[in-house]
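hi!! sorry for the late reply, been swamped w classes. u asked for the two structures so here they r. pasted raw, havent cleaned anything up. first the sequence of the first protein and right below it the tokens
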Amino acid sequence: MDPDDVVRLRLRHQRLREPYASTTEDALKHLLAVQSQEFAYARWTLAQRSPGGTAAAVERAVSDGTILRTHILRPTWHFVHRDDLRWLLALSGPRIHQGNAGMYRRTGLDAVEGAKTNRVLASAVAGGAHQSREQLAEALRTAGLAAEGLGLAYRIMYAEASGVLVSGIPVRSAGGALKQSYALFDERVPADPATLMERPAALAELVRRYFASRGPATDRDCADWSGLTLADVRAGLQLVRDSTPGTLETVRIDGVDFHLATEPAVPVAVSGPPRIDLIQCYDEYVMGYSASRHYLGGEAPFAPAAGEPAHLVLRDGRLAGVWRHRFVGGRCELDIRLRTRTDPETESGINQAVASYGRFLGLAAIRVG
């Protein structure tokens, strides 16, 4: 398998190429968890993987709790489908607490204060009383607990990792942006016995779905993405092999084992004009990999030069430039900057990508710059 095969398979398995997901919710279930650091752009991560997906559709799913947003895995903000969150949190939560132990100590959050924090926050949001971060801070302050800066941030994350808090109905600010609210985990994530798993089954499920949606990838890629240990990932791979033989296959590339969903054949190269994709910098096509991210064609510019966009332009799956959006006078302006000079076919691909982004937003979209 050569590098072009790796790129084509990743694009397809990530649902950035056919077969696309039928809905934004299906896209999320396929990917299991999607980094949602920047909510506005994270909506696009799901929508661009499902024909007809829109920002409004993602927002509705977040509001009704089908799609939930919480700190999980590494941990950072992720979208997770309601059906998957309870078992995934049971698998990930202990690792989050372990990884945060140093910051817990730094902010005075021990087991006793953690239990008190959870009681205070659970009471604040009980009965469907979805609360903003500021309202949670006031509840903690009233109870004599840390309510600002890192102290607040880690107490809220402690409650998320403990299965007490999860995202509520987003609140729209005066400027029109959607802001996170928090709800009681048990009210948003029903304890459906059909979705509960023992740890070995949960470990196998995470590993299977990671490699099915992001393969070809390495065990190190999966460990870094999930926040689990390398030993856990390797144990999960063996569990998948034992429980569902033939589900995953292993190929050796440049002396390294890569795992992916078993398929009849490597996809045939598609001829024709270049395909342009606008993806956010935290897209799973970037964040789904660590050890083998170099197939992207360069490191994602998470610290761009002053004034430079941070999101990524792909040309046939490889890094080709950067972009960002802004809203002016009821329309969306896309600042797209490619690394090399373009040709008419590439320009046509850019125009198609801009039009797709406009349909996603439900606004007129134009390229500027």
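now the second protein. again sequence first, tokens right under
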Amino acid sequence: MTETAGGFGYLAMNLHNQSGVLATVEGVLEFAVETLHYDHASVLLMHRRQPQAIAATDQLVSVADQLQIDLGEGPSLLAIAEHEDVLVKDTLTDDRWPKWAPTAAANGIRSALSIRLFTEHSTSGVLNLVSTQPYVFSEGDAELARLLSLHASIAVASARMEASLNQAVDSRKEVGQAVGRLMERYGLDAVQAFAVLRRYSQDSNQRLNVVARRVMDTGALPQ
């Protein structure tokens, strides 16, 4: 137990040092397989209210995840919809997903555990643990996976916030540079140049940074 606790301490530090959402997720999957000794693992993340397959330890679970998205059913989607963890004891006998379960079994997946990733306000994704053998996951596995999902939820939320802040900073830089370009070319002051950018943004129904990028690429206002 002490060794496992130490492993989670190392995981927390490792995830804190990762750069970007993908690297963070890959760190979680590496820990799941190499330290907790699960056979296969993957993560789905929500993007604009839709689940997306982000990363997997191998092709077996990657295919199973994409099948859920394509078929619109499966343990990960149920975990998202019901806001609870989902255990699949044996895909050959589980009748909750008449399309996904037989296909997963045919591809070699016999049992699975889908653990919800969430923040205070919403579900951010799902951690999937998969085995080629039936009846693999015990309640102890579920508790350990929930602890892993807690670390993953915090790390992914932090990585996403950092990415959002970086994007906001980049957008402000682009807008500032475009304002400078318009001032230089058309003899405008900063307030006038920004007002022109904003008007073009509203008229074309495009984000301000998109219009700014076009100004920087062409040196002039969009047509």
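hope this helps!! also noticed smth abt the second:
Strands lie at 40-47, 50-56, 86-88, 111-118, 123-131.
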